[in-house]
Each structure stands twice: as structure tokens, then as C-alpha cells.
Please model this.
Amino acid sequence: MLDCGLDMTSTLNFLPLPLVQNPRLSNLPGWSLKDGNAFLDKELKECSGHVFVDSVPEFCLPETELIDLSTVDVILISNYHCMMALPYITEHTGFTGTVYATEPTVQIGRLLMEELVNFIERVPKAQSASLWKNKDTQRLLPSPLKDAVEVSTWRRCYTMQEVNSALSKIQLVGYSQKIELFGAVQVTPLSSGYALGSSNWIIQSHYEKVSYVSGSSLLTTHPQFSVVFQPMDQASLKNSDVLILTGLTQIPTANPDGMVGEFCSNLALTVRNGGNVLVPCYPSGVIYDLLECLYQYIDSAGLSSIPFYFISPVANSSLEFSQIFAEWLCHNKQTKVYLPEPPFPHAELIQTNKLKHYPSIHGDFSNDFRQPCVVFTGHPSLRFGDVVHFMELWGKSSLNTVIFTEPDFSYLEALAPYQPLAMKCIYCPIDTRLNFIQVSKLLKEVQPLHVVCPEQYTQPPPAQSHRVDLMIDCQPPAMSYRRAEVLALPFRRRYEKIEIMPELADSLVPMEIKPGISLATVSAVLHTKDNKHVLQVPPRGGWGPPPRPAQPTGGKKRKRPSDDIPDCKVLKPLLSGSIPVEQFVQTLEKHGFSDIKVEDTAKGHIVLLQEAETLIQIEEDSTHIICDNDEVLRVRLRDLVLKFLQKF
Amino acid sequence: TPSLIMDPECSRLLPALCAVLVDPRQPVADDTCLEKLLDWFKTVTEAGMGEGVTVDFPQRPDRPSLLLLQENPCLVELLFRVLKAHDPRPRVLSFSLRLAGLFAAQEDCFQYLQVSLSRAVDTIFSLQGDSSLFVASAAGQLLVHILALAMRGPAEGHPSPQGCDWPACAQKIVCHVEDSLRSTATPQVTQALNVLTTTFGHCHSPWTQGLWVRLSPLVACLLEKDPIPASHSLVDLLLSVARSPVGSSDCGLWETLAQTLSHLSPTQAGPLALGILKLQDCPQALKTQAFGVLLQPLACVLKAAAQAPGPPGFPEGATGDSITVDTFLSSKSACVGLLCQALAHLELLQLLPQRPSPWPQAPLLRAAVAILRFCHGSAAPTSDVGGHLCAVLAGCVRVQRAALDFLGTLSQGTGPQELVTQVFAVLLEYLTSPDSSPMVLKKAFQATLRWLLGSPKAPSCCDLDPHTQLFLGELLPVLRKRLCSPCWEARDSGLEFLTQVTRHWGGQAAFRHALLASEVPELTGQLLRDPESYVRASAVTATGQLSSWGLYATPTGPEHPEVQQESLFTELLHILSTDSEGFPRRAVMHVFTQWLKDGHADVAEDLEQFVARVLQAASQDLDWEVRAQGLELALVFLEQLLGQPGSRCPYAVALPEAAPPATLAQVLQALCRVQLFEFALRALFDCDRPVAQKSCDLLLFLKAKATPCGGPQEAGASPDVVSVEAALQRWQAGEQGQPLGELEPEAVMAVLRSMDLEGLRGMLAKSSDHMEKSPQSLLQDMLATVGVLGENEADCY
Model:
């Protein structure tokens, strides 16, 4: 299974979870059907023209119907955003396999999950709505509830216990480490340049190679995004039979550099006018980029006295983690880890008291809180977390600004339950993942035989149908897939590598057939275990148990139905060569056969011994002697045929 | 200059240098030295041609160039040996060829050289293909010189095209050119075309007509080849012929040009079309065809962008033909290249007086807007070509820059209001877009400025028209945001724009109103403390300009809410005294000078105090430009006190003045109070020559103003000059720390009178390297680098 992401856009259909009693939200009118039927009015509330589910928010899980997840052996994780559904899979589907991920991915993924659980658990909500999910009922609801997919599979958030259990099933890996999976394939994570510990994966056997490219970034020479992480490893992706491409930028028209400029300018303008800035964000990722840019910017903009607050249950851990994963940083930042200077400048912002971080708005924060200020806090969906509080607090003043930087959520939908809103809203999505120009360069560089990608990438965005530059353009055209579609990857496994034990190899006597090509017959036992094939010396004087092969080399031990030795009959020589028909006929005549007739067929010849009522059918790769119950004749003819062939 | 004549010392050094140049074992000095040497020879040879020079140098012999050759046989020896060398060094070869060309350009020298050189013509032919471009180009030019001189004899008549009456040397060269034109190898064709281009460019004698008649069929044959070889050189040749007297007489040429235009690819035809349109007299039909070629790419864009059949576009012949479309579709680089070329050519053309008329302003505007929309991704084309253009141009900075420049130039003309609205809309898109690169943003600001300043005034009053006012309302928030950009280039371009627009519109009520309502002036003040020095400098200029129009109020940002409001003057003075970078300090000096000229309120409040403080700060500056600008400011001050230099024309009608001019004594007192003398005298011994020169000029002006009036000198007082002169001597010796102390006007005037300021000015006028620039020094240096002059250890490198 490649990645295990969680679709959190489902939460946009729910009412926000306020941290403190909120009369506005608790007094919203219930929603009733057009005919006045009000049986849903406890579950659905109306707010400024939109209908929301008044319940604990629920998440949309990965597809579970299509395959039995208990049969999944391995999950490969490419970055911390793509593992948020892990507890649902590992804890509730009978999954017994292994999850592979890099260490920073797991640690920061844990932070994201912990924050999510914390946000939801600290505001317990008694009500859990389910009536609206009834298919017949859902049809009657207004959009977007009506069009929500798979609502019956939506689930409430997992618990910390489940998170811990899920994470315990993860095996940590390092970049370029080769991991054998059951001997069948080898998987290798490569740096993808997108986030701390983010990886692309290579899945290869001896003769086939599949690359899985997800969430990569090439912003290596960028002044703003000063290459925090190890740069993307492109060279290792070469010679792929198939390249599965996903996780491209969600906002192909917005370049991150310009967006950071917008972010900074709008922030400065708001604060200058005495307003506050709210930045809904995840506790890791883009926030590092923003803090680094602000670090350089605030002095020039005369904002040194403005406090920056980072509020998250995991703020402290997040800021500390990013400073210690030295081996995962780019070279430039790596060297800083060993210097008194921290690799990320936010440490200096903290030291100089410009950036302060708090687990929540309760406690110390309320004492230190000073306005105007800039607050970074979650959750970007605006449905839970401390951000809900600030939306309620600052939403009424046009001096304040909320700046959306995370590209995952539609900002208009996120804002819907807060309308009408006086505060300014700025949309500066910062997505550093590959855009289509970069993809095109990457594909030219890597040259995979086939590209497989989501259908959306093979056509221009629906809103800009003329932008043919905003799609994947490659030769041969990319194979696309859509939700729940089963796709056969365009290659066939035709060869397997077989090892020959040294003793056996010693005994071979190769014969040169053509210059440079030698053949040797091998009599051996083919031992197959964990998808490794080994030719071993056959036991002398009978078939005993074979010696154990010199492995296993990792992978999970599995019981295969038969580790038994196949029956072995007397070994017959192998034949090669071809039979020249004219000479063969002459030989037959020499040996007393007469009345010989030769017929040409599509595949060769038929030599007809009319007198003996016998047929010799000579084809490129077979010769048949068809005679009527005359074994002596058959053997005679056979020996004559064999004279023309070489034996091994 | 005296260096025109070869002095004995140079003559003594020259043989040694020539020996070094022909010796393959000796390292040759760098190209620059050889270039300088050539320059020197050029001045020597040119002195023999002009008439005016004779007046300046009566002692000059009649034929200096020939004399030079005759008296320095080492030169001819050099040319001869280099041409005969098996493997001459390219630098030396190129130098020798050009030297030969210099001399050969004069008939007497040519004849002197001819004996040896005509034998070398074959060598020169082969050198045209030399791998060194210098050598190849010099060989080509030499051939032209030889040809021109050889033809000088029969030039009086019209030699026959067949060439039977041509001198042998010329015949040889022309035959070589003919052979080359027939060659299938492009480099050969290129060489021949280049030789002809130079010939027609430089020689305007009647024989060139015969040459063209003889060679034009061969040139025409080139057009029939596919692809056309050396198309670039061919274009150069045709234009060169068209510009020469041959062009005005030969009507066959116009046909060739027309044919060439239609045979060349759109990219190749562009430069030819522009060249044709620049010609003074050429048939209208050809001009129309050429203009059509230039318009083709834009016609294609218009066609691709059109949703529906639009208003009439370009004239006939520029309708987006299929070849241009093919070029657009062939590759991204071809498409971008063609568009950029067309935009640049049309931009050049628009500025010319002979530009085509009627000028298709409206379709050009539409095309520029369409291109900018394609680049921005905001166009919604319906055709296939449109879709392709959209994909190719999206985000293409090169085209964006070219199109914005072009659009800016189009602001000179007008357009229908609906189009002008579109122009402003697309400019606003670029100014707003976060994706505009810093350079594109700068260009967008520049184009916006040109369109704004070109926009008409409302007929009823002298204020801005309603459209412009509306646009300003949208523009100022964008400018405000750009001034907050984390990208310093964006802040800088924003400030430059603000300065320019304020300079022109500072008095317009609508502009003033909109600007004051925006936050822009406050932000500009904030940027005086920007970490980037260029931005600080631009902010200084902008605040200075705003303040001149009374549009600047000192900001109270969140950063310094506690700081008492201080005047901009104090703030700028602070920058002048403390800023670590030169640019902001220079900008401050410019602003102060302007303020003084304009009679700015902050200045007028206490003029002397202002001048004194500025001069004090400037005198201590490490940057000579700041000190020089200080003198500029001092001069303005002086002029205001004493009147403009030369304004006291005895016949001029005296203008009524508000206040009677101060007496000289009062003026001198004032100058002493602001310590202008100390500043100027200190500057007189400044280690940077421009500062000293400026100071010298200033003191001379003062001296001239003071002396005829008599003045204090006649009062019989005996000023204390000794101490002043002693201090000045110490300054001259480099001890600048010594203060001058209290100065009496009388003492100053006495010192000025006793100083030889004129002499000092003459000395300062000589460039500081006048010693090192002499040919003798050059020869010595070149020889020194190869160690021939053992005793001369001086090394100026």
C-alpha cells in the first residue's frame, strides 16, 4: 500500500468545535426539509445560508471496500501528511503487515496526530449525528452535504492509544536503505526534498523497477525556501519501467515565492494598522518556511516589536524536533547543527522573545497576550483547535486578517460557518511540491518507460480549461487512474534470477555454441523459498533433503504451502541443433528405407515412409515419429534423428 | 595632443617592440595594450587627413603617416614578417592587419606598402577563415581597404562591370569574392558577404556601382538555395547596398529586397524589414511589405486571442500567415524568440520619424495586451494556436519584459478609451500579481508611469481625468503592498515609481488627495530604515520629492510609537551622517540640493543653519561623490546669494527682486558663518580629483564675483592671512586634521587672491594618468612586461 492519507475535507461539513461556550454556535437554528419535516433539526444546523452537521467531526478514510486490508503486507509512507489514516488501517482492519517510514516522518506524523486527537478530545461533544447519513435522507440535503461521498464510512477521530499502537508497527528506514520484501522485491526510500524526512520510493526486482514519486520538491535554489531538507534524489529514479506520480502541487498557478511575498506584505499592512493576523496552519511544514522568511523580513518591515505566537499542543516538540534531525537536512543546514547557531532561524526568534509558543490559549498565553500580534495555530480546516477561538475573537473587526497558507482546504468553505465576517481574508496557498513545468523537466531527466498518475493530472484544471500547460505532457501519454479503478501496470514479469550454488557451478562444462554463447546442461534441484530461487547440487544416490540456502536476508517469514522437493526422474540429455532434411532422407535411404516422400509444411517438413506407414514430423523445436505400434522401428528412427542433433 | 608626433624616444623604443611582436617566443602583452597602441597609431594617421588639424599643429609635417612609415622601417618589417610567418599568434596578426589597414587607408602610405602587401593578398584571403575572430575580421577589412585604394585610380570614370579595365589587385580580390559567393560552404559565402558589406558601407565612389552590377546576380542566386546560406550576412549586405549611393540608382535592388523578404524565415526577415523601414527613400510597396513582416507575429497573436472576429486589425499583408504560425508552433524558443524580436523591432520603429503612416496603434495595443494576457495565463483562447501560445508563454519573463517595454512605448500614441482601459487593466494585473518577477514588476511600473503621464487631462479643469483618478484608486493599494514586499527589488521599483509620479503630479489635487488617503507616504518614511541600501536611497529620494510637494508627514510606525515626531530634514541628516552605505548618503545630498534650489519650507526656515549642517556632515564623508555633491549644494547657495554666474549681463533688463541683493560683505559674512570656505578649501586639496575640480570652480566663481566689486580689500585692513596660508599648506601636505579656525572674510578673500586658482584648475583638468597615457609610457610598459627594458622597473599594472 502506497501511503495512507486521511481526507480531512469531510470535516468542513461540520460545525466548528469552540474552546469556550459559544452562544452564536449553540443557538443556530435547526435545519428542516422543504416540506417542514424537522426530524434532522438536532443533527443539522443552518448558518448563514449553509447547513452543517452538529456533531463530532468525522474523517473520510482510505478506500476499504476494494481490497481486504488484512491482506496488505507492507505500507510505504512518503511523508508525514500521508500517514494520518494509519491508526484506522492498522487497528481496525486486521492488518498484520509492516509500515515503513523515515524517522522524522514518524516523529512529526506523531505530532500531527497528537495535535488532532488533542484538538478533538479536549472539547468533548456528546452528540454524534448519524441520521443524515442515511442514503435516502442524504439525497434530500442541500449541497455540499448531498454530494459528499462514502459518508457511511466516515469515522470519528482515533485515540492516542490507537496512535501509539499504530506507530509501534512502523519500521524506521533511512534514505537509500535497501529493504527486502519477502525476497520478491526490494524497496528503497529516496529523499524527495519536500519536507523533513519525506521520501519517494523505488520498488524493484532484478528485472523490473517501479518508482513511486509522491510529494516532491525541487525548490533547491530558492532564496526563500532555503533548501531546508536534503534535495530531491532524481538520479536514482532513472531506468524505471513505471513511474507512479502523485502529490503534485495543488495550486499549480501560484508560485511559492510570490505567495510568501503576498503573505509578508499583507501581514505587515495589517499589523501596521493595528490589526492582528491569524495564520491557520499545521504544527510542522510550511510554518518553518514562513518563520524563516519572517525572520529575514520583520526587521526590514519595522515589525520587530510585534509578537508572534505559535499555539499548538505540540508546538514545543515541533520546534525542537526540527533542530535535531541533522542527517535529514540539506548540507547547508546540516553544518549548522554542529555550530552554536541553530539550523533554523526560529530558534533565534524564540531566544529574542519575538516568537513565543504555547500549548493552548489557556494558561500562560492569556497572561502574555499582547495585540496587535500574529498567531500561528491549527487547525487549517477552522473546525477545531485554537484557531476557532481566534476566528470568533477577531472575526468582527475589519482591522484583522486571516491568511490561509495551507493548500489542503478551500478557504471559502473553511470560512463558511463564520460568516458574516468583517475580518479580511487573504489566500496565499504555499505549496512547494512539483508543478507541471518541474514535472516535465523531471520526466525528461528520469525517462521512465511509463508514467501512471491520477486522472486529474492529465487534463487542464476544470476552471482553466485553456491552460494546457497545467497538465502532464509526456510520451507515451501517462496512464491515468481514478478513484477505485483497477489498473494493470504496463509491464510483464518475464524473468527471475536464479542463483547457482558454487559447487554446482564448478561442475558445469559449458560448450560454446556460437562465439560468446556457451551452454551447459545443469542437473540440479531448484529450491524456491521466499521468492529466492537457488539451484543446488542434487543429492548423490538418492534425493535427501536439500542443504539450506544461504539466506534468508530479511523480509517476513511466511509459511508457503510446499517446501517439499519435487519428484525427480532419470535425467535425459538435452538436444540441440537442426535436422537437414535432404541429408536425413539420404541417411534413411542408406538404412534401407525406400519410397520416402517429403512434404513441406508451414512449420517444417513431414517425411513420409509410405511403406512403413510412418510419419516423421520435423519442426523447428520438435520432431515427432508417428508409427503404428512398432516400437523397434520407432527406436531405429529415433536414433537416426538423434545422429543429427547435439546432446548435452 | 602633442603625442600625435612620434618623438625620438618612441622611435628608439619602437624597433624593440616590433621585434618582440614578431618573436614567437616572447609573450605578448594583453589585447588592451595592443588596442591602445592601435589607437595611438590611429590618431597619428588621422591627423594627416583632416584639415582643421593643420591649424592646431603647424609644425606637423605634410604627410605624417608616410613619414612614420619611412622613418620607422621596423613597422613595414613587422607587417611583412607577421604575414609571412607560418603560425603567427592571432593577437599579433590581428594587430598587424589592422595596422596595415590604418596605413593603407591613405593613398601615399598605400602605395608605399603596396609592393609588399599585394604579394600578401593570398595570405589575407586565407586569413579570412582564421579561427580567431579578430584575425578574420581584420583580414576582411584589410581586403576592403586594398580594394578601395586599388580602385582609386580608375574611380574618376565608371569602370565596366566586366572588370577588364580594373587594376590587377582589385580584379584578384573581386574574383576571389565571386568564387566565394559560388561556394557551397557557408563560411566562404559569409566571408564574401562580409567583405562586400564593408565595401558598400565605406566606399561610396562610382566604381561600387559597377561592382554591384557585376555581383548582384551571384547574390540573387543565394536566394534560390534552400536554406539560404549566411542569411544574416546577406541581410547586412543588402541593407548596406541599399544605404549606399548604389541603392538610390539601382531599381533592381528593390526587387531583390522584396524577394529576400519573402524568401527568408520570419525570424531572419525581421532585421531586414526593420532595415528597409529605416531607409530614407525606398518604394512604398516595399515598405508596406516590410512592415507586414514585422507585424506578422503580432497579427498571429491577435488572431489566436480573438474570441470573435474583432475590429479591423493590421493592414493587408499582415494577417498572420501560415509560416509565422508554423514558427510559433515549432518550439517554445522559436516562438519566444520571434515574439521578442518583433516587439523590439516595432518599439524601435515607433520612435523613428520615418515610421510607417498610418501607424496601426489600436491593433498594436490590442496585440500587446493579448501577449501580456497570454503570459499571465489570463487569456482564454478558443483556437488551437491560442492554446499553444498560452502554454508556451505562461510565465515567460522574457516576453513579459519585451511586451511591457513595447506597451510603454505605445503610450506616446493614443487609443480608443476602451483599449486604454484594457491597457490599464492588464498593467494592474501585472502590478498586483504575486507571480510577477522583480524585473517584470519594474517594467510594469515603468509602463504604468508612461501611460499615466501620457493620459489626457480632463478638458474642464487642469486636474486628472476621471479614468485616471479611478485607476489611481486601484493602484495606490497595490503600491502600498509592494512597498511592504519582502523582495527588496519590488520595494525599490515601487519607490522609484512613486518618486516619478509625484514629480509630475505633486500639484494635482486628485493625486494629492488619493495619495494622502493611502498609507503610501508613511510607508515610504518607514523604508528610510530599510536594511537594503538601494531601497534606503530610493526612499530618501521619494520622501524628498513627497516633502517638496508637502505630501510627507513623519511616520509614527508601530516600531517607534514613542519617538517624538522629528522633521524629515533631521531624519535625512541623520542618514547622511550615519548610514554605512554610500547610495543613501548620495541620495540625501541630491535631495538637499534640490530642496535648496526649490526653496523648500524646511530649508527656508533657517537657510544658514541648513547649509552649515549639511556641509559639516558632507565634509566628513568618505564617499567622494557625497563631498562633490556638497560643493554642488554650496554653489547653489552661492548663486542664490550672489546671482547666477554670467547673469550680470550689463545689457540685461534687471528683473524686479523681492529683496535687494545683499552686499558682498554680508554675503562673505554669511559664507563664513556656514563655514563654506573651510569646506571648499579643504575640498581643494581633496585626494579625489573631481572634488578638487569642483571646489576650484566654486572658488573661481566666488573670486570673480568678489574682485570687480572691490570690497573689503580696499578698507585698508590687514587681514591675518599667514595663519590661513599655513593651515592650507599643511592640508596640501596631507595633514587634513588641522582646523582652520575662525575665518575673517577679509582673510579669505586675500588668500583667494593670492592663490593661483587658474593654474590649479589647469593642472586638475589633466587626467591623473596623463603621464601614464603617453605613447612612450605605453611602449615602455609593453617592453617592460617582456623584460626588454631591464632598467625600467616601473610597473603600472
Observations:
- Chain A is about 25% helix and 20% strand.
- The radius of gyration of chain A is 34 Å.
- Chain A has a mean pLDDT of 87.
